[in-house]
Design brief:
Helices cover 22% and strands 29% of the residues. By secondary structure, the chain is an alpha+beta fold. It has a single domain, classed as Sandwich (Jelly Rolls), CATH 2.60.120. The strands form two sheets. Strands 1, 2, 3, 5, 9 and 12 form a six-stranded antiparallel β-sheet that branches. Strands 4, 6, 7, 8, 10 and 11 form a six-stranded antiparallel β-sheet that branches.
């Protein structure tokens, strides 16, 4: 039994090493033109619950209009599976060592297709194998009012631009196993809120200095607001 357990752990470690070594790279992009979700899913977890409407690809209506595919993420229930606007990419192209790859930003096109304002953030996790050892979320959140058209955002993901939920952010970014797109008003885990989000052209990038200045200004404003609240 112990021999089998050691072999299982060795296999898991080897599998993870292979996955992470071949994962995130600068300029990789998910356009969804293949008609698949490209590894973006929802549900599962400890209880195995699945949302009534999982992430799905719509074949028209993206930023380029007619014939431009995009990913739709829905939350349609008041509680339980399907109550949060969330999609995750586990052990796939968005896992890996962001620090070694030099990826300091993730760009994407977003649109709010629902009836409730959304604030989109990226949440990084390292829960595989075993229980989560670290989580962090982008401090910057992309605000999506109801009725707005497609908008392009770049999420800075350097350690200094993340809000740590628990664990060490540097270790996390050096070995991310799950990336989530979430709706969260503040830099924390996903909010329970019904909504419909469109996502397209998810790209690993190095943001231009102007982008960092804009995001930095937003973070300074957030810090000033928090000090005023104290």
């Amino acid at each position: 039994m112990k021999h089998f357990l050691r072999l299982s752990l060795l296999f898991t470690a080897t599998f993870l090493t292979i996955q992470l070594a071949s994962a995130v790279t600068i300029n990789q992009i998910d356009t969804f033109q293949t008609g698949t979700t490209e590894g973006w899913v929802a549900g599962g977890g400890p209880l195995g619950g699945m949302p009534p409407v999982p992430p799905q690809v719509l074949t028209s209506g993206g930023p380029l209009g007619l014939g431009d595919h995009f990913l739709e993420i829905s939350a349609s229930t008041p509680r339980g599976p399907g109550s949060k606007v969330v999609a995750l990419n586990p052990l796939a192209q968005w896992a890996g060592n962001y620090l070694a790859a030099g990826v300091t930003g993730i760009a994407m096109d977003l649109k709010n297709w629902g009836t409730t304002d959304l604030t989109i953030r990226l949440l990084f996790e390292n829960p595989i194998p075993g229980p989560p050892s670290a989580e962090a979320v982008t401090t910057f959140g992309a605000t999506l009012p109801v009725g707005d058209d497609w908008s392009h955002f770049v999420f800075p993901i350097s350690p200094s631009s993340m809000t740590t939920i628990f664990g060490d952010v540097n270790t996390l970014l050096a070995g991310t196993t799950v990336l989530r797109i979430i709706n969260a008003a503040g830099p924390t885990e996903a909010d329970t809120l019904r909504g419909v989000l469109g996502v397209d052209n998810i790209q690993a990038t190095v943001p231009e200095p102007a982008t960092f200045l804009l995001a930095g200004g937003a973070l300074l404003a957030l810090g000033f607001w928090r000090r005023r609240r104290v």
